[in-house]
Amino acid sequence: MKFVFVAVLLMVTVVLAQEPVAKQTGVLRLRVRVKTDDSSPQRGLSRKRFFLIPGTLEQNRALIAEIEQQPLTTRDCYYKQHQASAALIGWLKEGDCESVYCRSIERDFVSGAKAVPEFASAFAASQKEYGNDETALRWLTTNIPADMRDGFYRDRQHALEALIKQGNSIQSVMTDRNGTAYFTDLGPGTYVLSNLIPTELGQTLVTWNCEVQVKAGDLATEKPYLVSNRKDKNVKCVGIEKPMPVCATD
What we know:
This protein is an alpha+beta fold. It folds into 2 domains: 26-60 and 167-243, Sandwich (Immunoglobulin-like), CATH 2.60.40.1120; 76-149, no CATH class. Helix content is 32%, strand content 24%. The chain contains 7 helices and 12 strands. Strands 1, 2, 5, 10 and 11 form a 5-stranded mixed sheet that branches. It has a 4-stranded antiparallel sheet with strand order 4-3-6-9, with no helix packed on it. Strands 7-8-12 form a 3-stranded antiparallel sheet, with no helix packed on it. It is elongated. The chain starts with a helix and ends in a 7-residue tail after the last strand. The relative contact order is 0.22.
């Protein structure tokens, strides 16, 4: 009996030894806080996408160079080139929108003092199509020309896709309304935090490309990481600001 008990105990020990040990990973908590100018209050940068690229800045030198040299058209320039009305450009800017889908189109923007010509025309077309004002308002975006509707957003997505193809295992997150986002399941190592495409902020474009160290001691914890366009003792990643380019004229 003693021999059988020892044999069973050895078998249990072997089985337990073969059980996989849970892999510990870390969490990087981004908090993006920005100022549009020296006199404005600091605010969370909402609805902006950030990327985490494995490797150091040196190892990603070719990708960083591509990020810094990419020819981009700003939102205002894009819509001006497509003959958008000043009212539509203002509506987009007010919500920091890349397309008409980023905020609801209220009735005030279809008629009256706040009316946006593109919305008014689309609403009139939708009224004829649906014969109901409520339905027409809900579906008016289908009658806005594609370039005006979401062309700028699609151009940005194409630019992002071209950059992402150059990197391996790139993760991405979008900040919430408070400017907070989380990268999860991170192993130890060096990463580059980047927004890949410059963020429009007031009269400047901001690009972030910073090294982030995830150490063994950061695993199974939440590592805070403060990002800003202005230097401060608690800021870990400071963006590089450049003046907004002047729109080309025909």
